[in-house]
Write a structure and sequence with these properties.
The structure is a single chain. With 415 residues, the protein is mainly alpha-helical. The chain is built from 18 helices and 5 strands. It has a 3-stranded parallel sheet, sandwiched between helices. Helices cover 53% and strands 6% of the residues. Helix 11 packs parallel to helix 14 and helix 13 packs antiparallel against helix 14. It is globular, with a radius of gyration of 26 Å.
């Protein structure tokens, strides 16, 4: 859920989003009430969305899709059917002209990673299968008249480490691929060499962008407003679709939207809504805080947009807008994840002490009925272990179904 939130809203997921990711019955875990490019595309005249794949999307956007077929992500041993259930819908969907956006979320590669890691013998055949799907979609874009203005975005919501897991900060986990594919891209790009060697070691093969950059880029390409809480930056390589002047206007829309988020975070600072003051000019010369730095950068953009007695330089203005956006993205992202480590440690220590105290206080009572006591401790121990596996946490109810049915079965056998 946190990664899908970043891609669709452009905002930075917080620790609370990780918790809500587990609370599937809680309506607060839905993104339907938040501003996303999905909602904007649906609201556009004639907007109609279809979806096939991981049913997490259906939980996050319960009434967004006009047509959908979800698959459960819980059965990680399934490498085949979980993707076949997506692919079988693709040919018919490509032939139909009744949708403006289609999302396909395949799970097979993720399941293989969880079960046997990135070097699994199942990995290459599965990648070849995914290559074939991309090839079929691209050929449809080239051959079908109603798809001539369609953009295919191929991306991962996360990567994986050497053990096939994700959720940490290792480069393999935080460096999923992102590819924009369309016959129309030939007008601005001759393509790039593939395969290629890493630019700086590790997984840095091509240009690196933030996951949140997908939201404003798609909004610009699809002609819909940038999501309200977005912190992403329009990907510069795709600005070549527009003239210099139109590129500046597009970045100004992006920067104006991000500025609204910045103002909410730094309400005491002036961002040049009125005439520039002498105090602001001095602040630019001696920046002492993140907020002041952003106010300074925005003030400079306003001056570039309204030059006094000079010709407007759109190239410099575009560079200044991009600098403001990247700086705001970095500062606001750090603000969203600026937790007190000391308090986190203190909370963990208190929880551990309470758990130990509860165990020792209840142990004599549990031992009055040894069978029940052993069962209770076993259930508690296994439950604690499952908290270290994200797939089990997201499907916690499955664990309790198993525990309840096992306990009832034991009672029936005793009778």
């Amino acid at each position: 859920m946190p990664r899908i939130k970043a891609i669709t809203t452009g905002s930075t997921p917080s620790f609370l989003d990780v918790i809500l990711n587990f609370a599937e019955g809680d309506k607060s875990s839905s993104l339907e009430s938040q501003d996303t490019w999905l909602g904007q595309l649906k609201a556009k005249r004639g907007g109609r969305l279809v979806f096939y794949g991981d049913d997490t999307w259906l939980k996050l956007f319960p009434s967004t899709f006009a047509r959908a077929d979800g698959t459960s992500s819980f059965f990680v041993s399934d490498f085949t059917e979980v993707d076949f259930n997506v692919t079988r819908n693709v040919p018919a969907a490509l032939d139909q002209n009744d949708w403006t956006g289609m999302i396909l979320h395949y799970l097979g590669l993720d399941h293989i990673g969880h079960k046997s890691g990135p070097t699994s013998p199942h990995m290459i055949p599965k990648q070849a299968e995914m290559d074939d799907i991309v090839r079929r979609i691209y050929r449809a874009l080239e051959s079908k008249s109603h798809l001539q203005s369609t953009l295919l975005v191929l991306c991962g919501d996360h990567g994986m480490n050497d053990a096939g897991n994700h959720g940490g900060s290792a480069e393999g986990e935080t460096s999923p691929a992102l590819v924009f594919i369309s016959p129309k891209l030939r007008s601005i790009s001759q393509g790039v060499e593939c395969p290629t060697a890493p630019l700086s070691g590790g997984l840095g093969f091509y240009t690196k962008v933030e996951q949140s950059d997908v939201a404003p880029t798609l909004a610009g390409l699809l002609g819909v407003p940038v999501p309200r809480n977005n912190l992403g930056v329009f990907i510069p390589d795709l600005l070549r679709f527009w003239t210099q002047g139109d590129s500046v206007r597009l970045l100004k829309q992006n920067a104006g939207q991000v500025l609204g988020v910045v103002k909410e975070t730094f309400p005491t600072l002036s961002f040049g809504d009125g005439p520039q003051s002498e105090a602001q000019s001095e602040a630019c010369a001696d920046i002492t805080s993140d907020g002041t730095r952003l106010a300074c950068l925005w003030s400079g953009i306003r001056n570039l947009g309204n030059p006094k007695g000079q010709q407007r330089n759109e190239q410099i203005e575009q560079a200044a807008l991009h600098t403001f956006l990247t700086q705001a993205q970095m500062i606001m992202s750090n603000t969203a994840s600026n937790y007190s480590i000391g308090k986190l440690y203190a909370g963990t220590a208190i929880a551990a002490l309470v758990t130990l105290w509860t165990f020792f206080r209840s142990f004599p009572v549990l031992m009055l009925k040894p069978t029940f006591g052993v069962w209770f401790l076993l259930v508690t121990l296994i439950y604690g272990v499952t908290m270290f596996a994200s797939s089990y946490v997201e499907e916690e109810h499955q664990y309790w179904y198993l525990v309840a049915s096992t306990w009832l079965g034991w009672l029936a056998m005793k009778q």
